[in-house]
Write a structure and sequence with these properties.
The structure holds two protein chains of two kinds. Chain A is an alpha+beta fold. Chain A contains four helices and four strands; from the N terminus they run αβαβαββα. In chain A, 48% of the residues lie in helices and 18% in strands. Chain A has a four-stranded mixed beta sheet with strand order 2-1-3-4. In chain A, β3 and β4 form a beta hairpin. The N and C termini of chain A lie far apart (48 Å). Chain B is mainly alpha-helical. Chain B is 69% helix and 4% strand. Chain B has six helices and two strands; from the N terminus they run βαααβααα. The chains are: A alpha+beta, B mainly alpha. Chains A and B meet through α1 and α2 of A and α1 and α5 of B.
């Protein structure tokens, strides 16, 4: 039983480590692109017509935009229409939201449906 | 009619599946893996009898331990994903009962991995497969992604 517990812990820890490493590498790769900042946070929202969770994500972003009232720029990217942009940002699941600060540095990547509360917290960290 | 899915119920279901299957592996309890598989298959065939969702509905939600999170989505792809997981677990149990422990427990880990992918990254592999089959026009896969 002890060896099975150790195997389980090792697999869970390895899975977590792979995820964290992947996320870090993703952020690092995006930040190598040296995108120019727009002066205020930019929220890139990758969606597509065939994505089941995207309508809900869209509503969350509408709520967020209403509360934050022009303090960030929202850019919706349809991965079917602009596949090259999705590839450029390494998007592998939809919806994906990417937060870029005013200087053009990518600060957060959210894979999958992300609620307005979490996105608001991420935006707050950008405003210090 | 707007179609709704309580995402919290799905997440509780996935958390139970992951937790119990990990416990089954640690305790080398084939019966527990079989129990989880049976719960998944029963929940697919008769959704109101989905045990883990019932625990959410009747205990976790009223106790305010998990807040409901209702979104617009098709329930069928999620049900298909659960049924797919249940079938993989049934196969796993068959392998385990015939003495092929490595293949059996590997299949259990596949289910754990897919449930974790859904729980932590929001990627439902079974739903993806369902929508691909819908695109191909396979009978029974009638729901296409909701467009608003």
């Amino acid at each position: 039983m002890i060896e099975r517990l150790i195997i389980s812990l090792a697999v869970v820890m390895a899975g977590t480590a792979v995820y964290l490493l992947f996320r870090r590498l993703h952020l690092w790769r995006l930040n190598r692109q040296n995108a120019a900042g727009t002066g205020q946070p930019l929220l890139l929202y990758f969606s597509s017509e065939g994505c089941a969770a995207c309508p809900t994500q869209g509503r969350y972003l509408e709520q967020l935009a209403a509360v934050w009232n022009g303090r960030f720029t929202l850019r919706k990217i349809d991965a079917d229409v602009e596949p090259e942009t999705a590839v450029q940002y390494g998007v592998f699941t939809l919806p994906t939201t990417i937060l870029v600060d005013g200087h053009g540095a990518v600060r957060q990547i959210n894979y999958g449906l992300t609620n307005a509360h979490k996105l608001a917290k991420q935006l707050e960290t950008m405003y210090g | 009619m707007e179609r709704k899915v309580d995402e919290s119920a799905l997440k509780v279901n996935q958390a139970f599946i992951i937790g119990l299957l990990l416990l089954a592996f640690v305790l080398d309890a084939v019966w527990l893996a079989a129990f989880v598989g049976a719960v998944m298959l029963l929940g697919t065939a008769v959704p109101p009898l989905s045990l883990f969702k019932r625990i959410y509905q009747h205990w976790l939600k009223p106790a305010n331990l998990v807040k409901p999170h209702v979104i617009t989505d098709n329930p069928e792809p999620h049900r298909f994903a659960q049924g797919f997981g249940g079938v993989v677990l049934a196969l796993a149990v068959a392998f385990l009962l015939t003495g092929q422990a490595v293949i059996g427990w590997s299949l259990v880990w596949v289910v754990v991995g897919l449930a974790a992918l859904n729980l932590f990254l929001g990627f439902c592999a079974g739903c993806f497969l369902y929508y691909q089959l819908n695109r191909l026009g396979i009978p029974g896969f009638n729901r296409s992604p909701i467009r608003l």
